[in-house]
Write a structure and sequence with these properties.
Oligomer: single chain
Number of helices: 6
Helix content: 55-70%
Bound molecules: zinc ion
Radius of gyration: 19 Å
Distance between the termini: 70 Å
Length: 188
């Protein structure tokens, strides 16, 4: 019978592998001028400019399937069931990242982690694009020295997330007013 601990360890390693790639892809392919024009960077720039733009799902599925095949097949061949557990952790955490990132833009955060993840990410979007590249955790920002604790985040009115704006006032909802402000000129 297979012991659970090695399987859990392999799955955790898969989670950490995605977490590291999430940072590397976002920081260097997304924001480093030396790699400008790459497919991810082009899509990511549009995400920053438009705010509510996300790369089409079919492109992500193609990329994710190719990456899974390239890394998953050798992992299973080399390490058998441990390789499969690693792959489950890797793909599962990648899916969690995709869902979390989209929900950061579309829904207000629930709980401490949800609120932290949004502030961490919107500091990156609206204050300093050279910091806070991690989406699911601060781990690699801390490791590479790009972690910044957000202050009050100025959100350009044009890019304001629907969950942040109170439709009756056009301004930031009261419950978020201590953490976000709209960067806007005089209101009509
Ligand atoms: Zn984003
Ligand atoms: Zn970015």
């Amino acid at each position: 019978m297979l012991a659970l601990a090695p399987l859990a360890g392999a799955a955790l390693l898969g989670v950490l592998t995605w977490s590291f790639l999430e940072y590397v892809i976002h920081r260097w392919l997304g924001h480093d001028r030396r790699f400008r024009g790459n497919l991810f960077g082009t899509e990511h720039l549009r995400h920053h400019v438009e705010g509510d733009y996300f790369a089409p799902t079919h492109k992500k599925v193609v990329f994710a399937t190719a990456a899974t095949a390239v890394m998953g097949v050798p992992a299973v061949l080399l390490a058998g069931v441990l390789g499969a557990a690693w792959l489950v952790g890797f793909v599962g955490f990648y899916a969690a990242y995709e869902i979390l990132h989209r929900r950061e833009h579309t829904h207000a955060g629930i709980g401490r982690y949800g609120r932290w993840a949004r502030r961490h990410h919107f500091h990156h979007h609206f204050v300093d694009g050279r910091s806070n590249h991690g989406v699911t955790s601060p781990l690699w920002d801390l490791a590479f020295g790009t972690y910044r604790v957000p202050g009050v985040i100025p959100v350009p009115s044009r890019l304001c997330m629907a969950w942040l704006r109170d439709p009756s006032t056009g301004d930031v909802r009261d419950e978020h007013a201590a953490r976000y402000v709209l960067r806007t000129t005089a209101r009509a």
